[in-house]
Every structure is written in structure tokens, then in C-alpha cells.
Amino acid sequence: MKSRFFFGIVLLLIAIPLLGASYYPTKLQDARAVYLTKDHFPVHGDGQADDSAAIQSAIDQVAATQHSGILFIPEGRYRITRTIYVWPGVRVIGYGPTRPVFVLADNTPGYQQDMGYMFFFAGRRPGDSHKGFADLLPSSQGTVPPNNTVRDANADTFFSAMSNVDFEIGKGNPGAVGIRFHVAQHCYLAHIDFHMGTGFAALNEVGNEAEDLHFYDGQYGIITGKTAPGWQFTLLDSTFDGQSKAAIREHEAGLTLIHDTFRNTPQAVSIDPDYADELWAQNTRFENISGPAITISNENNPTTEINLEDISCRHVKTFALLRESGRQFAGPGENYEVKAFTHGLTLSGPGAEGAISTNLDAVPVKELPPAVSNAIAALPASDTWVNLQSLGAKGDGVTDDTAVVQRAIAEHRVLYVPMGRYLVSDTIRLRPDTVLIGLHPSMTQFALADGTAAFQGLGTPRPLLEAPQGGHNIVTGIGLSTGSDNSRAVGVLWMSGADSQMDDVFFPGSRGAGGRDITLSWDTQYPSLWITSGGGGTFADIWTPNTFAQAGLYISNTTTPGHIYELSCEHHVRNEVILNKIKNWDLVALQTEEERVPSPHALSLEISQSRNITVANYHAYRVTSSYQPAPYAVSVSESRGIRFRNVHVDSSGKLPFDNSVVDATSHAEVRARELAWLNVPGKPAVADPRGLSPILEPGARVKRLATGFSNISGAAVDAAGKLYFVDVRWQRIYRWSPETGDAVVVRNNPLDPQNLAFDKSGDLLVISSGGKGTIYAFRPGTPETQITMLKPQPAQDRPGMTAFCPSSVGAIQRFSQQRPWQYISPDHSVFIPAGTDFVQGQIALRMKSGDILRAYGLLPAVPAHPFYVTDGREEKTYRGNVTATGTISGLKLFTEEGGDSLAQDQSGNVYLAAGQVLVYNPKGKQVERIDVPERPIDIIFGGPDRRTLYILTRTSLYAVRTRVRGL
Fold first, then answer.
1. What is the mean pLDDT of the chain?
2. Would you state the pLDDT for residue 845?
3. What are phi and psi of 705, to 5 degrees?
4. How confident is the model at residue 875 (pLDDT cuts 50, 70, 90)?
5. Which fold has domain 413-453+464-510+520-674?
6. What is the dihedral of CA 449, 454, 459, 465, to 10 degrees?
7. DSSP structure class, residue 217
8. Are 32 and 52 in contact (CB under 8 A)?
9. Are 663 and 680 in contact (CB under 8 A)?
10. What local confidence, expressed as pLDDT, does residue 886 receive?
11. Distance between CA atoms of 95 and 863, rounded to whole angstroms?
């Protein structure tokens, strides 16, 4: 009898999935939260009745009352029959002795074909005026409501989250997806088990950060593309088991894996064909992977950046596969450790040219080492938490809560902080063992009012929050606002030790008070997060966009180990991140963004007098509308052992950082904006061993002709070979005069010139970013009042005319599309094809659209010669043909290198401005590199014999003589 009972228990355990332990086993009291309970909503929680409407109603109530907030869901089994929409800023958090479970019953209608979502994180509610960046999604049962009013989460979707719930998908739902999560900063998923059965995927489209997720079965655990803002996605302390196709199928996700485990699946990570990614994995395990653990695509392109370190493998025959070539990298035994695997552009040091290479450093072992501890430590047991409001704190944004908060810290180790704005007037000083727990950093903030007396004047730094030396503090789910008029303020002064932790913390800016000009207060406070005096620990999911602070993150004077995971640091005036006199730190998935107005001169990352630093999966972005060039993203000085693994420096506009890294000690630059492997200092660059140049005239050297410009490009030459170009920032059109050695201002009208082209009669066509579809023409040497405005005409064949087309694009897929408009030159010898976006003056990301504006220059389509166009973001250059309407057709890949512009000579050689000037023969083989003191932006052949290659950098004009005439 006893054995039969035991056998029955075993069968029961097999039949019922083992769900994760509840992270919040007790009800958390918060007067501002909404609770999915039967006294407020018609909810059942029995796993049988349909709870979809009740859950949606509760989420709607959170969003309707305060736009952001928390929905608490008690334990129970909640049956879902249709998609539930989670509005921006809403956090869905389960509680109770067991986690609440969202159940999709067998054969639920709408989940058999395509993708049907159980939960869909949305970009806006129906009727909201703010539209965000995403397009409307197509209507489909199980995904988007028929009225097409719900937008996908996007780059403006902040603070949304789901935590401490589980998912079960029944049989007969092959299209089922647990969550669509296409979100931006301070959004996360945590403490969730996904039991997928034969469902399609647990997650489709991901963003920002996730912790403690566990994926069982399903076709995929995660299937995703680029995150909404283009930043990295970081997954911590998670497991995958039993996926039938791949644990993760992805592209361009900036995938960052820390302490994750993959078991019993054909592939751990598969990058989609023809796509790249920046993949970083560390302290991760692969077990029983039948196919290659990692499948790498776009293998010959610099945007593919792959690095894995400290990987333990059991029964993984093939560690990595290069998809296009079929090249495989086998493990050295049944059990082995991968110390390091690299694929991508590898540089021996700053100043070196680099090459794409692959390296596997693996050793066999008898037994795998034990798994390392979680990257994110668990919180103390919830029965030890003390509610701050129960101790008298108001959190109403008016009452000074300083004394209550400080007394609570003195008397209690663990404080739970319900939603509210807790106004304080002095430093909150933590004890060495203090734990502060909030659950929504936008709605749960400690804040200084503008003009707080203790933080005024010039003087020593005064922190809003201070973590003491040697402490083992935890701070999570809280915002820390220093206002705009508190010049001595530091958001957090962190001196706590190696086992301390900060997670899900927000450092907001401020709107200022009294209508005053808050720009006067920018860059007047100390850093938002200052880690110093022996401070260390783990910092995950941090957002520091406070323009009033000196820097978002400053780490100084510490050798205590520290780890940064998914930190977004943006909009500061001079520095985003500073590392000064530190050792033993890893900065993983660091992302910076420089805005047009506050931060055109900001340095993304400054490292000085430091040792043993790893910067991995680093993104440095400058916004589309930037007008001021910036020389480099990263400066390293007087430092050793600085390891860069996966560097992505970009902008969707024309002004990314000119260089990714500069070694200020050796004055060596890294021009490549995409690279996989670099150490600073590295091996010194080797002198070019080539002898007589096949391209340059004997003895020719690059010569600087003029300097002192702000941002020059848009070059064109007239029939005599005279060079004209634009300083975009100052709206000036120049002509270079070889006779006098001067750059002469030709026109200085306030007409926003961007690009130039000449017709056969000598009229200069000017493409302008002003107005709607503005192209005008004038004859150089005529009075400035003489301007001919050109009107767009419907596209048609223009036999006998020459089309001028962009030499560079930001999206090659759109480049070959038909352009329905044309601008005809005054003499009808030249025309410029244009899209509707340009003609209508459409705005995209606060900048006028149209590839004839976004390019650094235009090139003529010469009959009987191929037309080349380069894509600097995708690092590819293509060859095609120009039709009689000016459309580029038959585009084929020419080389896996992209640049800012290009030129062509009469022998068919292609000159590519890609960090230096790289010269390729007609077969796509590089035959020459012309080194230029500054990064080339626009290049063009000119001079009376067309053998002078003019090279425009941001600030200077250079030239070099060639053997062959330009085309």
C-alpha cells in the first residue's frame, strides 16, 4: 500500500510541472497599487473559468489612475483565452506562498497559427495622444485587437515589468507565445517559469533586462530581433531546457548572457541567416546540445561580434558553426571548458588595421566545475521586511520624510518602500546591512526639492543616499532624484563592498521650478552614481539620464571588484561614464546616448589610471539630429589591461563618433566603429610593408589643404575640376582655390545646404534640409540674390540626362525602391531622384527624411559604369546599375566593408572612406590603404586632370595625387 501511494505521488509530480518558488510569498501592502482580488474584479483564479477580462480590467485601472504603477496578482491559476495588453509603466507582480500561474488551455482558439500572444507589452493605450516610434501592428486573432489601436512597445516604453508569475501552455497551441516584450529602459522580466509544451516561444521580441527566467520545452525559448531602442538585451541567472528547435533564435539583439544554462536542445543560440549580432556570454553552461551550441551568421562582416568566456560544456560536440562557410569549431572532449571564443574584427592594438578572425581556446576536463553563484543575489526573506509607511513615512511629495526614513534605517535592517515620492532634506545614510526594496523606480522615489538648503552652494559632495564602506547593502526598485538646483548633490555615494548590490534603480532628471531656464543648471551637480573609496559590488538595470549631473556613472579610487550589467547612461553635458584609478571591474552591456542639445560634446566613456577592466557589449550612440561632430567615444589614458569585447559605435544620423577608441597615452586611434576584440594598450601598429603604391603617384603624400571647419561634406566638382563643399553646421558653401590656397565662401545664405551637384552648364544644385523638398540652383560667381528654386516633377525616363544619387545610405533595402519624384537642373542635363519623404519634408527622429539628405555626398551615374553605394551601419558596400529613372537596380554585395562615402576611378577601382581611404579593385579585393590624419567623411576626384583625390574630414580638407583619373 505504501509503495503504491509513493508511486502515485511520483506520477502526480510528473503530470504537474514543478513551478518556481514564490519570490514574494506574502502580500505587499501598497495603497497606490491595484490588487487582482475577487472583492474588486470578477476573477476566479481556478484555472477553469476565463480570467482574461478581469486581468485586462485590472491593468487598465492601473494605467487609468496614474499611468504607471503596480498590479499585484495573488496566487492562483488564471486561465487566459485572448491577448492581455500591458500598458507602458505598468508592472504585473505575483505574490503568495506559490506563484500565480497564467494558463493557456488545450486548443485555445487563436493560438494555432502565426503567433498568438498571452501577454503583449504595448507602446500606448487606445486613444493616447503620444504615438511613439512603432507602426501600428496588423490585426490578428490572439495578437492585436481588430480596431488596430494598440501599438507595440517601443523606444519610449519605460518601466514596464512582470515578475513572480509562471506560464503553462497546454496542448494544441503551436502558435502560442507567452510574452511579447519589445521594450526600452527599466523594463524587465524576472522570476518566471515558462512551461511551453509544444508552443512556439516563451518570449518574442525582448528588451532591456531579464533575471531568473526558466524555459521548459517549446519550439524556442526566445525568438527576437533588435530591441526597440537598439540597445542590448541582458539575460541573467536563467535556464533553458528541452526546446525542440533552439533555446534562442535571434538577430541584432545585442545578446548578453550572464550565468545562464542551456540543456537538451539542438542549439543554444542561433543567429538568423544574413544577420549579425554582438553576442557576449560569460559564466554560462551548455549541456547536451546536439547541434552547434552557437550558430554565427554574416561571418565576414565587422558588425558580427562574438565573444564568449568561461563557458562549461558537457556533451557539446560542436561549440560553434560559421553559417556561410560551414566552418565548425569542435570541442576537445566530452567535458571541456572554453576559456575564450572570439569571432569578428580583431585588432592587435589602437592604430592597427585589424582583420576578421576566429579563435577558440578550450581545454578538456574530467568534470565540469560547480556553477558559480547567481549574478543577482536573492533578497532577504519577505517576513523580515518592514513597510516604511507603517513607520510614519508619507511619500506624498510634500512632507519632509527625512527623520522618519533615517530612524527606520537605524531600527530595521530591511525596509520595503511602497510607491510614493519621499521628500528628504538631508543625506539618507544606510547602515552596513541596510536593504531598501521598492518595486517601481519611477513611482517610488527619494527626492530632493529644488533649493534644498543642505545641498546648496559650491562645496564638498553631499549624497542623497550613502552606502558605507565595507557594507553589504542592497538597493532595488527605487528612484533617486536630486532635482535641478542642488549643486552639491550626489545621487548615490556608494562605498559598499564586493557582495553589495544595486538593481532596477533610476536617476531621473528634473523639469526645474518657477519657469527658470534649467539649461543654466546643467552639469552643476556631482555624479548620479558615484562608486568610490573601496566601493564595489553588482549593479544591474540602472538608468542614469540626469543632465544636471556631472556624469551618470563615476567609479574612482577602488580596487574592490565590481560588475555592471545593462546600464543606460545618457544626456550628460561632458561625460557619461568616468573610470578613474580603479581595478578589477567589468562593464557589460553599457549603453550611452548623446542628445543634440545638452550633450553634443559629451564623451561616452573615459578611463584613466586604471587596471584590469573589461568593457563588453558596449554601445555608444549619438542621436540622429546631432549637429556637432565628436572625435571619439572612448578615451583611455595611463591605463593597462583594458579589454574591449564587442564595441558598437553608431548613429542613425550623419554624426556618430568619428573614432571608437583613442589611446591618449600613445595618441593612437581606433577608426573602426564595429569591432570584436581589442586590448589597450596593445601591440604597436606595424608600419605598412607595401612598397610602390599601385594607386598613388610616386612620392605622393596626403596633404592638408585647409582646416578650422565645423563639419564639411557634400562635395562636388565643376567641369574644370574645381572643388565645392558644404560646412553643414554654419550653412556655408565653399570653393577650394588651389591658386591662392584658400577655401573661399561662395554662398552664406540661411538655406540649410547639405549636398551639391553640378549640371553641364555650370549651375550648382543644392539639396537643402529646409522646408519641404527644397532643392535650389545658382551659378557660382553670380549675386547671392540669384537663386532658382527647383520643383519636383513626377518620375519618368530621362534619356540623355545624368542622375545624381547618394553614395551612402543607412538602409540598403530602401535604396533600390522607386523614387516617384525628380528635380531637373536648369539646363536639363542633370536630375536628382527623390522619395516622397523628402518632397513632403517628413520628419523622422527629429530630422528631415530622405537619403539625398542623409548621404555625405552625391555621385553621378556614369553610363556604362556600375554604380556603387556604401552602408556604413551594416558595414557593406554594393554594386548596381542606374536606370533611366534614376533607380538603382541589381544591387549585389561588393565587399564586406562599409563607409561614409566612396569614389571611383576610370580603371574601376573603388575608394571607400571607411576610417581610412580603402581602395578596392573591381573584383572587390583591397589593393591599397591611404592613411589620413583624421577620419575621412566624403571623398571625390577633382583637379583639371581629375587625378586629385580630395578628402573631406569633419574639420579639414586634404588631398592626394593618384595615378589614375577619377570617374
1. 92
2. 61
3. -95, -40
4. very high
5. Pectate Lyase C-like (2.160.20)
6. -70
7. S
8. no
9. yes
10. 87
11. 71
